[in-house]
Design brief:
Helix content: 10-25%
Order of helices and strands: HEEEEHEEE
Oligomer: single chain
Number of strands: 7
Largest sheet: 7 strands, mixed
Length: 158
């Protein structure tokens, strides 16, 4: 895909798919979660996009999203621990990447600022005769959109 046409949600998907805890991934959808176990989806959460507008025309923005998954589910405690444990590992991965400045790769004119987990991973619903479950975790990605009038990269931290 042409970098100029790359959408934010696509950049976030490309970033999330590198998570080492997704190694058994069957599918990573956008606003679509397959019922097959070990499927994941990145889903937009309605939120205010522009956080701050600057005098030069640039703005600090955010995208809030959920990473949802379908996992096998049972009354066995180890199964429940494994499902919840994935989200603990995922949270640690996001935090470590944020601390090390590892962010989604954005198109020109957009500078990543921070990616963080806003909630713990939690059981959202159980379905298929109590054999599968949807879990999810909410995240927030903040970035600077540069002013088209003054040019790009005025806020870049490199």
């Amino acid at each position: 895909m042409d970098n100029e046409k790359k959408y934010l949600i696509s950049s976030i998907r490309d970033y999330i798919i590198t998570c080492p805890y997704l190694k058994k991934l069957n599918n990573l959808g956008i606003n679509f979660l397959d019922e097959e176990s070990n499927s994941f989806s990145i889903e937009d959460v309605p939120s205010k996009r522009i956080v701050t507008k600057y005098v030069d025309g640039s703005s600090k923005r955010q995208i809030i999203f959920v990473v949802a998954s379908t996992f096998d589910f049972s009354e066995e405690v180890q199964n429940q621990i494994n499902n919840s444990g994935f989200y603990e590992d995922f949270s640690d991965w996001i935090e470590e990447n944020n601390d090390n400045g590892v962010f989604p790769d954005l198109k020109a004119g957009y500078t990543p600022e921070e990616i963080e987990v806003e909630t713990s991973g939690y059981l959202y619903s159980v379905f298929n005769g109590m054999k599968q479950a949807r879990y999810q975790i909410q995240c927030k990605f903040t970035y600077i959109k540069e002013s088209e009038v003054y040019g790009y990269n005025r806020h870049r931290k490199d």
